[in-house]
TrEMBL record:
Keyword DNA-binding: no
Keywords, comma-separated and alphabetical: Hydrolase
Domain Ricin B lectin intervals: 2-101
InterPro entries reported for this sequence: Ricin_B-like_lectins, Ricin_B_lectin
Organism of this sequence: Forsythia ovata
UniProt key word Hydrolase: yes
Protein name per UniProt: Cellulase (Glycosyl hydrolase family 5) protein
A family per Pfam: Ricin_B_lectin
GO MF: hydrolase activity
Length: 151
């Protein structure tokens, strides 16, 4: 385990592992969604082998995350086609979704890149940081909507 946390730097960059002191706080809801605390953004599985993303429509199965395996350290979601994926880390420390590793108790298998633990934290959140990011997304969306509607 690395002791690192999922960071969200901007809407244009993938989610990455980084220092917990620089990461947003997340909430694991009773609906099994992982949301950035104080926002409507939830973690979503996009497609196999692709970066996980943030979205605001959090009722679909690709926004539901459950701990699986004996260790309870694999976070699994279902894609639109019904296939299961797990959170994983790629070579650039980006958060991606891949086929879940080591579910068959193979002793030579190494699931380390897919180990994630939801922990309780008492640290304060940065409401200003979150609202700035939300504003930047809304202004980005507004600019794109204006560009689309001006066609």
């Amino acid at each position: 385990m690395t002791g690192l946390c999922i960071q969200w730097k901007s809407p244009f960059e993938p989610l990455v592992l980084g220092l917990c002191s620089e990461a947003e706080a997340w909430t694991y809801t009773p609906q099994n969604t992982l949301t950035i605390k104080g926002t409507y953004f939830c973690l979503q599985a996009n497609e196999l082998g692709q970066p996980a993303k943030l979205g605001v429509i959090c009722s679909y199965t690709n926004s539901k995350w459950e701990t699986i395996s004996d260790s309870k350290m694999l976070l699994s979601s279902k894609l639109e086609d019904g296939s299961s994926v797990c959170l994983d880390i790629d070579s650039n420390n980006a958060i991606v979704t891949n086929t879940c590793k080591c579910l068959n108790r193979n002793s030579t298998c190494d699931p380390g890149s897919q180990w994630f633990k939801i922990i309780d934290s008492t640290r304060c959140t940065s409401a200003t940081k979150s609202s700035v990011r939300i504003n930047s997304i809304f202004s980005f969306m507004a600019k794109n909507m204006l560009a689309i509607s001006s066609w």
